[in-house]
Amino acid sequence: MALFSGAASARIIPSVSLSSSSRAFFSLSSSSSSLECLRSSPRISHLFLNQRRAEVRVSSGGYGTVSAPKSFASDPDQLKSAREDIKELLRSKFCHPILIRLGWHDAGTYNKNIEEWPQRGGANGSLRFEVELKHAANAGLVNALKLLQPIKDKYSGVTYADLFQLAGATAVEEAGGPKLPMKYGRVDVSEPEQCPEEGRLPDAGPPSPADHLRQVFYRMGLNDKEIVALSGAHTLGRSRPDRSGWGKPETKYTKDGPGAPGGQSWTAQWLKFDNSYFKDIKEKKDEDLLVLPTDAALFEDPSFRVYAEKYAEDQEAFFKDYAEAHAKLSNLGAKFDPPEGIVIGDSPNAGAEKFVAAKYSSGKRELSDAMKQKIRAEYEAIGGSPDKPLQSNYFLNIIIIIAVLAFLTSLLGN
Predict the structure, then answer these.
(1) How far is residue 271's CA from residue 29's CA, in Å, rounded to a whole number?
(2) What's the pTM value of the predicted model, to 2 decimals?
(3) Which residues cross the membrane (predicted)?
C-alpha cells in the first residue's frame, strides 16, 4: 500500500490523468483476484458520468442512486455482524490492503485547523461520492467500495464512515496485526458538496519526502512516531507500474498471486502484517522488494530513524504504537453519535471510558489500569458487561444461603 495514494490499485477510469507520485503514497494494493472481477462490470465505465448523483451504490452488478444515509450512530449488533461478513470477504478475496487504504483515505483528509464539520474532512464517509473517488490519490478505490457495498446493503444500520473504518481495522487484525482499540458511531456526510477538496493526501515521491510527510501528517495532528508507525502498514500489499507508476511488473514474490500475478511488494509475505517492512527497508538487500522515496526517508531522517530502527528490532513495540496510531487516524474529523462512540466486541480498550472496576470489586483503593482491564476481561468472560449486570442465578443463590444457614446452625448447636 503506498500509504494514502493510489499505488497498486486497479485504475479503471482511463480518462483520469494521474501523476505517478500522487497515485502511490498511502496505497495498499489488494489481491488482483478481487479486482479482476470488478473490472468486468459492464456498467463500471458509467461511474463518473454524473458527479451530482447522491452516492455510488453497487447492486446487481450495476450502479444506482440511493437516498443519503441517516445521521445517527450505527447499530452495535449490525456492526458485529458486518465485521463477520468482512472476515468472510477477506478470506475469499484477499483484499486486506485495499480495505485498509479505503479507511485511511476517508480519514486522511482531516485538517486540524478547521473546526467545522464536515469542512474539516476526516472519517465521515465522503469517499463514497464520485467527486471524491475521482481524486487522483483515490484511483482504484472504487473497487474497495464495490466489495463493501453488498455488506452496506445488508446492514443499513451501519454508516459508510463506520463501515470503511471497520473494514480497515478488521483487515489489519485478520492479517495477523494487533487488535485495534476502535470505536464506532461515526456520522456520514449527506451530499457530495460536503466532500473535501482534492490535494489533502500525500504523495509517494515528492522532492523532499520527510518534509512532505510532516507537512501532511502534522496537518492531521499526528507526530513523527505516528507517521513511522503508520508507514509500517506497507508490510501489506503490492504496487503495479501499469496502474500506479511504481514497482516492477512481477517479482518472485508476486508471480503466483494470490489472485492475478504481478506487481512488486514491499515485503516477501505481503499479506502478513508484521514488522518485516522495517527490516527489509533497513537492509535494502532484496531488489525484488519495493522501496519508495517516502519509505527510504524513514531511515534517512534522524527523527524518523529512531522509531524505524526500534520497530525493525521490536515487533511488539511496533504493534503497540501502530494500534494506537491507526485508531487515532480512524477518529480524525469524525462526528460521533453518541459523542463517546460505540465499542463492539473484543477491542482491547472496549468501553474503557464507561468501565468502573469498583462496581465489580471491593475496597476503596484505586486499582491500576492493568487490574481494571483484568477484572473487566474476567467479568465479560462470564457474560457480564459494564452496561448490563450479570443475570442472577436464583437457584444457586438459594443453595448458597441454605448452606450458610446450615453451617451457622451447626456452629450454634455445637
Answers:
(1) 10
(2) 0.71
(3) 394-413
pLDDT in tens, the chain (414 residues): 555 654 443 333 333 333 444 444 555 554 444 444 344 343 333 333 333 344 445 433 333 334 444 446 799 999 999 999 999 999 999 999 999 999 999 999 999 999 999 999 999 999 999 999 999 889 889 999 999 999 999 999 999 999 999 999 999 999 999 999 999 999 999 999 999 999 999 887 888 999 999 999 999 999 999 999 999 999 999 888 876 778 899 999 998 878 778 889 999 999 999 999 999 999 888 999 999 999 999 999 999 999 999 999 999 999 999 999 999 999 999 999 999 999 997 644 444 344 444 444 444 556 666 666 667 666 666 555 554 455 556 667 778 888 888 888 888 876
**Residue type (1 letter), 385:** S
CB 122 within 8 A of CB 68: no
**Residue 260: burial class (beta carbons within 10 Å; 0-12, 13-18, 19+):** middle
Which backbone phi and psi does 266 adopt, to 5 degrees? -80, -25
Catalytic annotation, pick one of 105, 135, 212, 326: 105
- Tell which residue, 199, 71, 62, 50, has the closest CA to residue 124: 71
326 catalytic? Reply is no
SS3 of 35-52: the string is: HHHHHCCCCHHHCCCCCC
